Here is the input.
Amino acid sequence: MFSRRFLRIKVVKALYAHQTGAADSVAIEEKELLKGIDKDYDLYHYILSLIAEVKRYAEERIEIGRNKHLPTEEDLNPNLKFVHNEAIARIEADAELDHILAVKKLGWAAYPELVKHLYVKMTESDYYKEYMASEKSSFAEDRRVVEEFYIQTVQDDEMLCGILEENSLTWGDAIDFVLIMVLRTLGAMKPSQEKLPLQPQFKGDEDKAFVRRLFAEAVVGYKENLGIVEQFTKNWDIERIAVMDNVIMTTALAELQNFDSIPVKVTLDEYIEIAKYYSTTGSSTFINGILDKIVEKLTAEGKINKSGRGLVEI
Here is the structure.
């Protein structure tokens, strides 16, 4: 499932687009926001299927070796451990995943060079060499090499990131969150399970309601919240404050004032972290200082009241 941080990032980006582009109605923009999250969920299934495509490439190489005019001993007696990997077999055979990929028309056949690149990169890695050399054979070992494939081979791969960005403007940013979901899926796999433990898109209806309400509150309250921010940035050149800084702070204020069960510290920590990755150098320190002062003021005025559910965010 997507984390709350991921959902906050999606709202921040949607609000940024709203403030810097031709604004449509909030209802239309909310629909586009949710559609974007749906597309990022497609990426989860797409990436999960990638290891199966690499395995198929490995099988093709083995067959080519066997059919050589003058095959070597290794060609005739290849190490089949990777292509017989039980964890990959579960991914390949899962009917639900296969159905989703078919409906969404997601496949890697159009990117043979990427598949070859990832295969070569994997086979040159220490984790793969150790796996293939080991005489042990267990589901846990099979699952672990797949996890390492995603951690060491897929993560931060420039060719893959380039292809994803060509397919969707949001996929480049979503890949790290999607990889976490893939690893959770692999970690939850058990030898006795027939079906893959596919991750849901949201933890529950509450998270989907959270993202919709946060976006609505951030858009409707933008001018008022920006006015509050400007009260505390009088000594700053307002023209030099990044638009993204204002968007991050006003979204944080929307959350602080409208979500009583989310602790102040959680909200502040989340948006400061978002600023580190999506705004300018030094923005997180600047935003931290401004929000601290605003929280003190709004709390004293009774505009920030926290209660319920032990003030622990789910």
Summary: Residues 41-188 form one domain. Residues 96 and 195 are 8 Å apart (CA to CA). Confidence is low (pLDDT under 50) at residues 310-314. The radius of gyration is 24 Å.
